[in-house]
Design goal:
- The chain is mostly helical and 298 residues long.
- It has one domain.
- Helices cover 72% and strands 0% of the residues.
- The protein is built from twelve helices and no strands.
- The chain starts with a helix and ends in a 7-residue tail after the last helix.
Amino acid sequence: MEIDRKELKLQARERMALTDPKFWVVALTYIAMTTGVSWVISLIPLPSGASPVPEIDTIQLFLRLLLNLYTTVVQFGLCLWALWTYRQLDPGVNSLMQGFSVAGRVILMQLNVYVRVLGWYFLTALGLSIPVFVLLLSGAGGALGMVIILCYSIALLTALIILQLRYAMAPYLLADRPDDGPTLPVYRSVSLMQGWKMELFKLEFSFIGYDAVNIALSTAVMIFFLFRAGLLSAASLTDPTWRIQCLEIVNSVPVVILSTLVTVPIDLWLLPYRATARAGFYDARILAASQQGQLPPL
């Protein structure tokens, strides 16, 4: 079972080009609603909350949780825009706001997915750790022990990717049938992705070139500021506080903002392109599943 990724991505590009307002306007609005709002909140001076644990600021923790819930709903709005774009329904920027009309269902659905991914991941990690510990305790040390730990890490990463792909179609299923509630789309996503996880992984992996360029641009900004601070000289590497100084520079407000801004030109293309291609994958799967009687017509 496979899909024609080149044709699917071509259709995504063609249908993105027909949008009004243009796709880059929607992407810019999405970035402003997510990253921009996060920046604004981070710049607001807040009083420390009374917390029984000194290291935990309750107000900061509450705002971070609220921001995560808000971002989840906006991401659902981008899924709506991508789905309507692929179906040539002429969506506008307001589609990014449509998720707030079903915000409770979106949040409960994502919470359901998070709990399931975390639970299956924990069980997988626990099951794989038993033979790993047995091998390590039996004397498999040195190079062999490193290989075992590396294989264990790769297995955990693979399991996490598979679990995320398993529930990847849930937002689109909720968008098609919001009256079904937050739970049914999760179950249907599992059914829809049986035997198709590798195809979706190949589609997502085909965008890795854009991600690599973004990482390179962000890294270049960080290296520039570290160089200006004199932390890349041979003498500074021997300083015991070198790592702490580097983290302070990398996490400073100017570096965070600039390292994000340099990726915006690519994100204006990548965000809608990837979302529309995934919506096309969903439409192809839902059509095939409906014809085979695996799902009711949507």
